[in-house]
């Protein structure tokens, strides 16, 4: 069997390329059949049934081979190749092909086409290929390349899932899924995604679930930002542009920077959107904690969390107990407590005594903490104090404290309430729609983690 070195329809005679009579006749038959309405698949099947050889000893006609033939401009004639078809016939063929092309409405500039990290079949682990067919109700689909599997999942690019009515496209979800896979691969030796991470949870299931939760988080952030009219500040935009320029400088050019991003399996537009998300999160949090803003919580919600968690604000003096000189430590604590009671300006006296103890970062605002953070003994003593009242020495077993009561600092409670409410909003986010699976199999796509240098540059926001 000889490999073909000349295009089908040509041969070499006496050192000159000429048309090969039998093959050129087959070519003209192919062109005529295609123009008469036969599909490439139908033509290929007919040629194979007739055992017409593509090259010596080989039939193997298929759509790809036929497409290559009808697109080959050499058949129009060049300085080397004699013509087999005329320009008019060639143009008719191309027009016919375009009219039948189910991909013609596909925008190749879409972010989905810039995904470079392979999507893996959840059933067999082989690669999945995305196809677009404008004739179908669901025009986008992913099909396993393994002929023994051929799992097909229909996923409209713009409707991978929704969060509270907001559409999430495939690229955002797959980016975070790849992020989680890369994180696990870096931190877990000999990672097996089917291995159990915890009871009833494999590494693969964890990656999928965490990616979904991250997508939901940033969707909620965007929705809160819209509700509160929160946008990026000029400082945020400047910081983002400086970051981008640093990346470009580091990689040497805009082109190299873009290639690095594509190596992550994400478009530059999506990478920029994800980067903006971090700043938007901070802006939403700031607005939530700013009295008078559209996102500032209701007073009853602040009071409810303060009661539920036992929040209290106080000025605290602290002595650790080491079991060696605890009696003298207690005497010192009692002396400091009495000095506070005798002081006309309790706050000033507190700051002076805290300095004597070497306590750093103390302010007249004091410390606001929940009962869980303070511990049962300290929390009970502090919560019983009136503003300005000095406690007795409080013994927690590991340390001694003297506390001065203060009005509750609501800002600390509101900050904690933000974390509580946004976590609840993510947990309650409705309308999650997973893509329908057309064959039996798990409802998931396993996205292979990318390499690339950006893995350490992006970190998720953790509430």
Can you write the helix and strand succession as a string? EEHHHHEEEEEEHEEHHHHHEHHEHHEEHE
Please identify the structural class as seen in this structure.
Answer: alpha+beta
- Largest beta sheet: strand ordering: 6-5-4-3-15
Contiguous helical run count: 15
Oligomer: single chain
The count of strands amounts to 15
Major sheet, described briefly?
Answer: 5 strands, antiparallel
Low-pLDDT windows of residues: 102-117, 433-463
Strand content: 5-15%
| Estimated helix fraction | 40-55%
SSE layout and pairings?
Blueprint: E1 10-13, E2 16-19, H1 21-35, H2 40-49, H3 63-71, H4 87-100, E3 119-120, E4 127-132, E5 140-144, E6 152-154, E7 161-163, E8 166-168, H5 170-187, E9 196-198, E10 201-202, H6 203-227, H7 234-251, H8 254-263, H9 268-288, H10 299-309, E11 312-320, H11 326-342, H12 346-356, E12 367-369, H13 371-374, H14 376-383, E13 394-395, E14 399-406, H15 410-428, E15 446-447
Antiparallel strand pairs: 1-2, 3-4, 3-15, 4-5, 5-6, 7-8, 9-10, 11-12, 11-14, 13-14
Helix pairs in contact: 5-6, 6-9, 6-15, 7-8, 10-15, 11-12
